[in-house]
Amino acid sequence: MTESIRFILNGELREVSGLPPSMTLLQYLRERAHLTGTKEGCAEGDCGACTVAIGRLNNGKVDYQSINACIAFLPTLDGREVVTVEHLKSKTGQLNPVQDAMVKCHGSQCGFCTPGFVMALSTLMHNCKDAKDDDIQDAIAGNLCRCTGYRPILDAARLANKSKDRELPSDVNALEKIQRKKMFAYEAGGAKFFAPVTGEELVEVYAQYPNATMLAGGTDVGLWVTKFHMDLPVIIYTGNVEGLRSIRETAEGLEIGAAVSYTDAFEALAAYDGSMLDMFKRFASVHIRNAGTVGGNIANGSPIGDGPPPLIALNAKLVLRSKAGARTLNLEDFFLAYKKQDRKQGEIVEKIIVPKKPAGVQFRVYKISKRFDQDISAVCGAFAADIQNGKVVEARIAFGGMAGTPKRATHAENALKGQPWNEATLQKAVAALDKDYAPMTDMRASAKYRADVARNLLKRFFIETTEPDVETQVYRYAE
Amino acid sequence: MLNKADLETNASIDGGMGQAKPHDSAHLHVAGEATYTDDIREPRGCLYAYVLKSPHAHAKIKKLDVSACSIPGVHAVMTAKDIPGVNDAAPVVGGDPIFAESEVLYAGQSIFAVAADSVDIARKAAAKAVVEYEPLPAILNTHDAIKAKKFVGDTYVMAQGDSTVLKKSKHQFHGAIDIGGQDHFYLEGQIALATPLENGEFHCWSSTQHPSEVQHLIAKMLKIPDHLVTVEVRRMGGAFGGKESQASLIACIAAALAWKSKRPVKLRLDRDDDMLMTGKRHPFHISWDVGFNDEGLIEGIDFTQAADAGMSPDLSNAIADRAMFHADNCYYLGNSKVTSYRCFTHKVSNTAFRGFGGPQGMLAMEYVIDDIARQLGKDPQAIRKVNLYDPKGKLKDRCTTHYGMTVEDNIIADIFAKIEKTGDYAKRREEIARFNRTSKILKKGLALTPVKFGISFTLTMLNQAGALVHVYKDGTVQLNHGGTEMGQGLHTKVAQVVADVFQIDLDKVRVTATNTSKVPNTSATAASSGSDLNGKAAEAACVTIRDRLIDFAVGHFGVKKDNVRFTPAGVQVDGKMLSFKELVQLAYTNRVSLSSTGFYKTPKIDWDRPKAKGRPFYYFAYGAAITEVIVDTLTGEYNFLRADLLHDVGRSLNPAIDIGQIEGGFVQGVGWLTSEELWWNEKGELKTHAPSTYKIPTGRDIPKDFRVALFDGDNQEETIYRSKAVGEPPLMLGISAFLAIRDAVAACGKPHCLPPLMAPATPENVLKAIQAVQA
Fold it and tell me: By the CB < 8 Å criterion, does B688 face chain A?
């Protein structure tokens, strides 16, 4: 028995059935709802032409976030509100402040990316009472424009920011009516979709369908469909499981539920260690961070995910759960080999525990890629060193992009442990990195560049911890 | 009737010449209401197409059996042998099969196509075909092509005097640069929607810069006359040259399937297929030998340009020609020779891209200037100034290009003077030197580079345009011209011309979709020529109608011709004032034709290609930019701190649109030379075919401090309202960003070092150059 997908689209209740569970929101908007303002530019969440705002009920009000409609499966919108560019004009046909400013500042040329920018910025204006330049840059980091060179779009955002009228239209009552207390089960064309709301339902349905595809933010799984055209016969969506969506401070440290979005996790982690911020800013885009989850970034086992290296350096633990119970392991031990993880049948990633950082530990994480915004790392390096009286007591170093998995640099760590934190020790540790990694060449970087940069990032860590006045980062310099 | 006093209160029309009006579709863009080809409601029974691509860069097709593709929902399969006419979608000389026949020449080449009820069905059906290949060795770079003597066109030389005199110069050196290609990355991918009509006719919506060519190629493919095919373009979601010749393949495949299925067919390439199947900016390898004196004056130079054309000629010969035309940039080369190889490689056929070869030729020249300056230990600006064309100065003989054209108006010296002052060049040079002396890890760099870009199609025939103007009885005007709108604001500018001739507000002029049944035999909207050509053609059409209205008024009111004037307040007839609408209504009643075509051809140009001498360009557009960068010497990452742009658009038709072109062009040029890296593996497969792997600039990549100004001055030629073309030239201002990075890299080495920085300057290439100068 199937239920229909219920969501609010531009103020109207939609009840959808008969469409495959892996149909994307973008396909639905363009091909079914004939709302063609939302565009397809890449179908992988990298260009932002499909940006829409998603409203989610939160304690009697609606929280809006921008996401990429091109990789969001339609059933994940059940119980949510969708706002597209067609819904921004007032009832009398007046452009909203962002739209109006985009016209006045000549922010569109070919116009194809424009609806995406308008949605990204309208969502920002809704959420942020006074958007600073950096907020604006963040908001559009996932939106590509090939015509304007961005200056007029940034000007438009600054102009729109002066407006008082910045709310997205929302209808709490309509949204409340379509919330579910129990698991949502949907089926069409022989494919099944389950959205459990409790942890018990989740492990139960996973036990029933052990070959199901686990779907969290969909920023990776979405591409299995849009890029690799895979059929996904059974999907289990974790995004509505309340227990997986919380962040807790405990005596041991920070507990982050697997379905917590990166946007939410970053806030907590930045508070945990401020040096994370530089890396977080260049971790995907706002739209992807709003959808993508900490658990998903770990569970998919990518060697180039930017979540694991800093978490491994911080000695994070992973909690896995199945019907049989829970087990905890060190995060680094989860990654067995390229795309092979220590996850048994029926097990889901439940949460990540980041232990409290002991006093005296110096921590840095660096991401290097061709472009600052929304790029995948050539190398991501994280360094945590307990330096007491000029001596390295303990060191944990982890890299992404240097091996088939996110991996610790044990040789380099050993070269540091117990040694004075000086140039000679640094050189030994730098040399030891060659024993830790044999990186590969691909379109993001050559093996040589990866190895050179890994060594140089360790040098940067040394400089930043020993000569704090030396400028080492071009992006920080420009601020 | 209005009275004369209204004249004073209405000083100018709304939207006349030189006014910074918004793009005519801006209010639609922001509301999601602008219709692109994929947004058009499909006709009933529309099918969706999928193209099967070659996985090999070079292979024989041993077997192709598509019989298994006919699964439920499939309505047509087209292979090469099903094409009734000519199996070719090439713009000039052939070589671009719509479907491969016995051999594939690049990974991504179309083998056959399926039309079905959905793209999904079409894709699944295509996978059922049996295709057997015999892989063959592939040529993947210009070096191997030259070794194998594989070219797509004849090697071509432009020369002046005797370049071998460089061997007698006090200073000489040999240098070279690898220059990467660039994907257009228009946000709207290639798309066409073809519909069969009655009596053998076809209609095709195509996202193309060249509707007339699409029309002709569809007709040729179907073996039907051109008059049976109508091609229409409302707007493109970006093009940049990528839809000049490349759109034809997509439109032809859609039309072929429409012909076979007798149903409308839409073919929309997804991003990956778009990037794998269609051509890009040409990678080049350019080397040089140059001789110069103590002042840095070039005494002789010999360039060898090797263009990676890919698997077919496409537009490569014209593109390689333009790389040669711009080998001088703004400098008098004197004894010089430019040799150009058009190399065949087993890669997608490279094509037009904003600048059309000019950027590569120009980058090499600026690299030479930079090298001379570094060798002599002088500021590059000193070297630039010594070598400028100087038609007005003391050295009057230094004004002939290596292709025999006289540079009449080199205004670069004036632009330099202004931008050096507004950009605080000398002072910042010193500040940067100071910073670099004390900064341990981060180094700054600064560069000022000029642009001189020739305006006209170098194939003289193409410099013509037509327009069609209708004036309706209510005084509103419909304008159609041969140009296409890809975001550049062409329709807005041409509408402003029309509004100006009739002296009516811009909102009275509506530009309709480009349509081959309205204006025939058009040239591509390319070579920055859109407003020059179509503006003049529209003006001609409007002047014809205006003259008819004047003649009518002269007869009707019995006044002298000189006393009928079109003013912002209306049409003044002696002492009386009629609104435009009133005059038009009166003229209609008296049976005056209110519709006209207009035509324009560019004067003065004369290019003798066999002799490599003449005047290929009507005029030059100029500009200069100063860019400042900070580089991380540990990782090669960088960030642009400031850029100052000063660009010459003649008398601007619309400053807002022109500034948009300048900024956008600059940022696109910076992208080409920095983060945009096309990466093929050793099998010839492109691995950067979507934005996850191919990185165009984002908002954060633009200079933190970004200053843009228009250079004040009219075009000395009689162009439309003395304006200048603006589409391509500003892209090359981005060269300043590349040389700024090189300047910062040089700060890591010994004095006089020549950083071997290759383009694009990805962080990896920057770090490599840093390591080289530190070695």
Answer: yes
pLDDT single digits (tens) B18-52: 999 999 999 999 999 999 999 999 999 999 999 99
- Length of chain A counted residue by residue: 479
Which chain A residues are closer than 8 Å to B638 by Cβ?
474
Give the 3-state secondary structure of A366-391.
Answer: EEECCCCCCECCCEEEEEEEEEECCE
CA distance A89 to A439: 51
Domains annotated on chain A, with CATH? 5-86+170-237 (3.10.20.30), 89-160 (1.10.150.120), 245-355 (3.30.465.10), 361-466 (3.30.390.50)
Amino acid identity of B32?
Answer: G
What is the distance in angstroms between the Cα of A427 and the nearest Cα belonging to chain B? 15
Residue of B nearest to A134 (CA): B700
Alpha helices in A146-243 (DSSP H): 151-160, 172-177, 199-208, 221-226
Q: Are A20 and A32 in contact (CB under 8 A)?
A: no
Minimum Cα–Cα distance from A111: chain B residue? B29
Q: Do A30 and B38 touch (CB under 8 A)?
A: yes
The pLDDT mean for chain B works out to: 96
CB contact under 8 A, A373 and B767: no
Taking CB atoms and an 8 Å limit, are A150 and B699 in contact across chains? yes
Reading the block at residue B49, the tokens are 């197409």
B675·A371 Cβ contact <8 A: yes
User: Would you tell me which residues 204-243 of chain B have a C-beta closer than 8 angstroms to some C-beta of chain A?
Assistant: 235-240
Segment B85-112, tens digit of pLDDT: 999 999 988 999 999 999 999 999 999 9
Whether residue B4 is predicted with pLDDT greater than 80 in this model: the reply is no
- The 3-class secondary structure across B359-401, one letter per residue, is HHHHHHHHHHHHHHHHHHCCCHHHHHHHHECCCCCCCCCCCEC
- Asked if residue B349 lies in contact with residue B104, where contact means CB atoms within 8 angstroms, the answer is no
Q: Between A146, A154, A371, which is nearest B701 by CB?
A: A371
- Find the helix or strand (DSSP H, E) in which B410 lies: none
Query: Is pLDDT above 70 for A250?
Result: yes
pLDDT tens, residue by residue, A119-165:
999 999 999 999 999 999 999 999 999 999 999 999 999 999 999 99
Domain locations along chain B: 4-34+464-601
Residues whose CB falls within 8 Å of the CB of residue B76, separated by 6 or more in sequence, listed in order: B47, B114, B115, B257, B260, B261, B265
Which residues on B lie below 8 Å from A143 (Cβ)?
Answer: 698-699
ipTM: 0.97
B440–A470 C-beta distance less than 8 A: yes
Q: Do A109 and B634 touch (CB under 8 A)?
A: no
Partners of A152 on chain B (C-beta within 8 Å) are: 660, 663
- 3-class state of residue A406 by DSSP: coil
- Residue A31 is classified by DSSP as I
Contacts of B762 in chain A (CB under 8 A): 370
Instruction: State both tokens at B234.
Output: 């409302």
Q: Which residues of B are catalytic?
A: 728
Query: pLDDT per residue over B502-556, tens digit each?
Result: 999 999 999 999 999 999 999 999 999 999 999 999 999 999 999 999 999 999 9
Q: Which of B187, B235, B762 sits opposite A146 (nearest CB)?
A: B187
pLDDT reading at B717 higher than 50: yes
The answer to whether the beta carbons of residues A177 and A156 sit under 8 Å apart is no
- Write down the architecture of domain B4-34+464-601 according to CATH: 2-Layer Sandwich (3.30)
Distance from CA of B399 to the nearest CA of A (A): 35
Alpha-helical regions (H) of B91-136: 119-126
pLDDT at B8 exceeding the cut of 50: no
Whether B448 has its CB under 8 Å from any CB of chain A: the answer is no
The pLDDT assigned to B395 comes to 60
